[in-house]
Amino acid sequence: MQKTKLVEALTGNYAAAYAVKASDVDVIAVYPITPQTTIVEKLSEFVANGELNAELIHVESEHSALSAVVGASAAGARVFTATSSQGLELAHEILHIASAMRLPIVMAVPTRALSAPISIHNDYGDVMNARDTGWIIYIAASAQEVYDTIIQAYRVAETANLPAMVAYDGFLMSHTVEPVELNDEEEVRKFLPRPLRPYTLNPKRPVTMGPLASPDWYYEFKYQQATALREAYKVVKEVDALYGEKFGRSYGVVETYRMEDADYAIVTYGGAAYGNAKAAADMARERGIAAGVVRIRLYRPFPSMDVLRALEGVKAFAVLDRAIMFGSPAEGPLYKDIATAMFMHGVDKPAVNIIHGIGQRTMYVEDMYKIYTMLKERPSKEVVFMGVRV
Amino acid sequence: MSLPKASELPIGAVIPEPGSTRRNKTAGWRTLKPVIHDDRCVRCQLCWLYCPEGTIVEIKGVFKVNGRTYDTKYEINYDYCKGCGICANECPTKAIEMVPEAP
Q1: Distance (Å, rounded) from C-alpha A136 to C-alpha A152?
Q2: Which of A148, A161, A203, B59 has the CB geometry, 3.0–4.6 Å to A102, for a possible disulfide?
Q3: How many beta-carbon contacts under 8 Å exist across A and B?
Q4: CA of A202 to nearest chain B CA: how many angstroms apart?
Q5: Is the CB of residue A253 less than 8 Å from the CB of residue A174?
Q6: What chain A residue is nearest to B6 in terms of C-alpha separation?
């Protein structure tokens, strides 16, 4: 446990940069894109000031940024990069390569809506397109959690030999100042020992990475990867608990608010949706509705059992999705995951899919309150596009 | 043939043994096989230059063919030749013949 308490007023992005500094990262590849840019700006300041001894590589695109950290990670370095929106789309190809090569890369993604039309504002269209690329995906809900999760992500990634993405609301969190308790950096470094990697690029012990695999071999490696991501669930839980013991803060994989006796719940992710849903649950309870909120913190691997357990007692629930999966049976990505988990475990209850906060359309607390009344008066299974002019 | 299981393979499709590709013979799909008729070969080296796989082997020595003496001779490494026929096509003296592989 650390001796002194150091609290700074930081944006979500600066919290991410401070976590990267504390994690003693060796190589950082940077390419600017809103709203991610201030993370790597802060990091380049740290490197320039000599506060962080890292190689900062300026690259020509996000595809190159992720490729550069793939190479550095293959050589055994602890690496970091960050991107948003179109940048994550451009890097998509390398997302699969990073996870399949089992490289413990950590990437921050302050989320942003996808083009077209161009929007620099926040929703989760970018991360949700990357949800099945084999990465561990966290979605944080406060600047403090961004800081803590990035440190946890290094420990998890280096234990599971998988890359990890730490996502959070662009602008709504990335550019919003909150108090953040910073850890003693010496203690963070003790929490993040550098485990011996199974294989690194080393001329003294040559190996081939990223080779061609014929039909006789390819499937086995993909099976390995699928299994590794499933098993990373345990690692995430263990590391969160260890972190809690050492630094006094832990989050679990699913966070609940007033769910103990709730009849109706909103399930969501990210800071703005969670915060407003909590305020709406308070409002609903004042008006006689037993309301609660479930927040998904670990999105991949998906914590099916934790979600189902959290929703066990409710009569009906809504899944608030901040991304649109065009043409899906239901357009919300989280809704689809929960529906699959329910189907596989024989659970059937009214669950409505609310799409909201697209391109940072304001999600009012009153909107969230309406969701609770809708669940109570007209429980159904449908997709509702909320907050849109039709 | 019994191949290793997923749990027995190194993670991330890493090949931990350097140079193991040498064991991998890549001529399996050849249907036409180039055969060099040494008596017609004038040692111009064009086959050796054009072969996309580097499977034409230049051998040094003293070779007497039809009363002429050469210091080189060309052979084909059939472990890697895929039978593309570029050598036969380029050969100015038609010294390379493409012969169907035995079924």
Answers
A1: 12
A2: A161
A3: 52
A4: 11
A5: no
A6: A220
**Class of the A254-385 domain?**
alpha beta
Closest to A170 measured CA to CA, from A282, A17, A12? A12
Is A199 in CB contact (< 8 Å) with chain B? yes
Mean pLDDT over each residue of chain B, to the nearest integer: 94
pLDDT tens digits, one per residue of A168-177: 999 999 999 9
Q: Cα-flanking dihedrals φ and ψ of residue A125, to 5°?
A: -60, -35
Compute the nearest-CA separation of B80 from chain A (Å): 17
Strand A79-82 and strand A27-30: the pairing is: parallel
φ and ψ of B69, to 5 deg: -115, 130
Q: In 3-state terms, what secondary structure has residue A58?
A: strand
Q: Give the mutation candidate from A219, A220, A222, A230 for the B interface (greatest B CB count, under 10 A).
A: A220
CB contact under 8 A, B10 and A228: no
Output the pLDDT for position A1. 52
Which residues lie closer than 8 Å to A321 by C-beta, 6 or more apart?
Answer: A124, A268, A331, A332, A333, A334, A335, A353, A354, A355, A356
Task: Find residues 100-119 of chain A whose CB sits inside 8 Å of chain B.
Answer: 100-103
pLDDT recorded at residue A93: 98
pLDDT of residue A3: 60
* Domains, in order of start, for chain B: 30-100 (3.30.70.20)
Residue B23 with chain A: CB contacts under 8 Å: none
Is the pLDDT reported for residue A84 higher than 90?
yes
Radius of gyration from C-alpha coordinates of chain A: 21
Instruction: Sort out which chain B residues have CB atoms less than 8 A from A102's CB and list them.
Output: 11-12
| Interchain contact, A220 vs B18, CB within 8 Å | no
Residue A338 near residue A319, CB atoms below 8 Å = yes
Closest C-alpha among A244, A212, A80 to residue A158: A80
Torsion of CA A15, A17, A22, A23, to 10 degrees: 120
Percent of chain B with pLDDT over 90: 85
From chain A, pick out residues whose CB is under 8 angstroms from the CB of B4: 220
Question: Between chains, do B16 and A216 touch, taking CB under 8 Å as contact?
Answer: no
Domains A6-247 and A254-385 are alike in CATH topology: yes
Domain A6-247, what fold? Rossmann fold (3.40.50)
Query: In Å, how far is A159's CA from the nearest CA of chain B?
Result: 13
* Location of structure tokens 């730490």: A166
Phi, psi of A243 (to 5 degrees): -65, -40
Residue B15 pLDDT greater than 70, yes or no: yes
Task: List the domain boundaries for chain A.
Answer: 6-247, 254-385
- Per-residue pLDDT at A2 exceeds 60: no
